[in-house]
Amino acid sequence: xxxxxxxxxxxxxxxxxxxxxxxxxxxxxxxxxxxxxxxxxxxxxxxxxxxxxxxxxxxxxxxxxxxxxxxxxxxxxxxxxxxxxxxxxxxxxxxxxxxxx
Length: 101
Fold this sequence. Notes:
This protein is mostly helical. Helices cover 82% and strands 0% of the residues. The chain has one domain. It contains five helices and no strands. Helix 3 (19-53) runs antiparallel to helix 4 (61-78).
């Protein structure tokens, strides 16, 4: 049983050495989020321009729902709300693995 626990047990020390990966991952997420926000603004401005020209309607509910949901996702990632949830999850896993210390 002890050998199984050693082989398949969670070792938090392994993940502590992955700080460089988290830094690179955070940078990549930041770049992707900024690009997504710029794309979102571009799509909004294109829609407003087509509304002004009379080619689209302001009452397109599908477009506004899609834009609202995508803006919420972008804002959650930009404001680190999602990462706060992930951090709390990580701390819970870490405390369970180390026995609450």
